[in-house]
Specification:
The chain is α/β, with parallel strands linked by helices and 242 residues long. Helices cover 36% and strands 15% of the residues. Strands 7-6-5-4-3-2-1-8 form an eight-stranded parallel sheet, with helices on one face. It is globular and about 50 Å long.
Length: 242
């Protein structure tokens, strides 16, 4: 069995280099964490891509919150996505809710087409991010998105209030893995701590996402390779039994 995936939020090449040195498997590249992560520039992506060998998932999000905005806002985000894709980005993070708290399929499908997700060896892959934790109905949202090309991961804490509140939901969804709407991998993030790992791994969850946990100095500091290494060591330990 392959080792668990450790994804680390990066803001710039220095973060990326430290995350790779600490043993991360993948990066989520964003800007402006004051708004919980927005789309980075094409130039930042190119610099990060040149600095490390890790896969880089690029955030597609123009403003705080989980609404895609009007047609002009979606078009503007599509132009940014197209530029990033042209620069070589082939992994993304996105997710939008409509006024009813369900998936905004028009915005999502439009972006998925722009980033080149679809059948073939060169298809882009993407994560539906923590908008799922704000959904009016998680199960309905999953069934809405089932079958969309390229979707291979849900980033979720199981609750809008973080992993402490979402553990039972995460266990239940992991148990449904492979069912319609539950084919994509669960990646746990959002208030995730090292002491959560034993229960989550015992439930069969194999992907984990950290942001502030990789930054002892907070968001004004950079990713710390030693902090990432602690997570790598914990995830490389045997899965608890019983």
């Amino acid at each position: 069995m392959s080792r668990p995936i450790l994804e680390v939020i990066a803001l710039h090449p220095e973060d990326a280099i430290a995350a790779e040195a600490g043993g991360a498997d993948r990066l989520e590249l964003v800007t402006d964490m004051a708004a919980d992560g927005l789309t980075p520039s094409r130039e930042t992506f190119a610099a990060v891509r040149s600095a490390v060998d890790l896969p880089v998932r690029v955030m597609l999000r123009a403003s705080d919150g989980f609404a895609a905005g009007d047609a002009a806002a979606v078009d503007a985000l599509c132009r940014k996505a197209a530029a990033l894709h042209a620069e070589g980005a082939d992994e993304f993070v996105l997710g939008f809710l409509d006024a009813d708290g369900l998936a905004d399929l028009n915005a999502i499908a439009t972006l998925v087409e722009v980033i080149g997700a679809g059948p073939g060896v060169d298809e882009s892959r993407w994560t539906f991010h923590r908008a799922i934790d704000r959904a009016a109905d998680r199960d309905v949202l999953r069934r809405q998105l089932a079958g969309l090309p390229g979707l291979d991961t849900y980033l979720t804490a199981g609750s809008a209030h973080g992993v402490d509140h979402g553990l039972s939901t995460l266990r239940a969804e992991a148990a449904r893995g492979g069912a319609p709407g539950y084919e994509a991998r669960i990646m746990v993030g959002g208030g995730l701590r090292l002491d959560h790992l034993s229960e989550l791994r015992a439930a069969g969850i194999t992907a984990f996402h950290i942001g502030s946990a990789a930054r002892p100095g907070g968001w004004h500091g950079s990713v710390d390779a030693v902090a990432v290494g602690q997570w790598r060591l914990a995830l490389d330990a045997p899965v608890p039994v019983g």
